[in-house]
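BUG: 3D viewer hangs when loading the predicted structure for this chain

Environment: internal workstation, default settings.
Expected: structure renders.
Actual: progress bar stalls at 90%.

Input used:
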Amino acid sequence: MKIALIVAGGSGKRMGSYMPKQFLEIAGKPILLHTLAVFEKICEQIVLVLPQAEFDTWQSIAKKHRYTFKGYLVAGGETRYQSVKNGLQCLIEQNFTEDTLVAIHDGVRPFVKPEVIEKSFEIAQKQGSAVASVPLKDSIRLLKNALEQSENVPREQFRLIQTPQTFLLGKIWQAFQQVPDSEKITDDASVFEQAGFSVTLIEGNYENIKITTPEDLLWAEILTKK
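Structure tokens produced before the viewer hung:
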């Protein structure tokens, strides 16, 4: 079974908005609804993780846009790690099997291509994991002393990591049981790797931006029109 675990626990601080960024509109529709629409065409089930305090707002937005959510609505935690863990726990409590495929995705990445999602499920079924990523376009430098000292490093050795990050449920749940939350945990692949599992990268798509700042919102409007 293919399941999407959509994490939408962001605030509007970096966006400079009073409204959580997942509820901001592009092309007349909240970002979160754009994201859900992509996964609903592919996945048999969806788990949506939102802050408990935003449940009423979500219900109002869904009603306004005549949208009926048919998946599991789960309360998030104080960190992204805890929010994902809560979503995974929901699946465990609902008795989904260990070989269930779970695509963990940011609610504010509405431009992921369907073929990337499909590929992530295909590879995760074989390898246990599949993490979307793209090559760097720009040159990068390694800081040695703030901006005063740095050195060039080959960009070919690095990848920009995106979501979805797709795993076999049994393995990713085991990883979240073993690895505690910390500053070193930047994404779900970090948890998976620290638990001793191997992370497999797949090609993502450059349009799959994470809408976090006002500049991202401008790009999102352009991509929506495209």
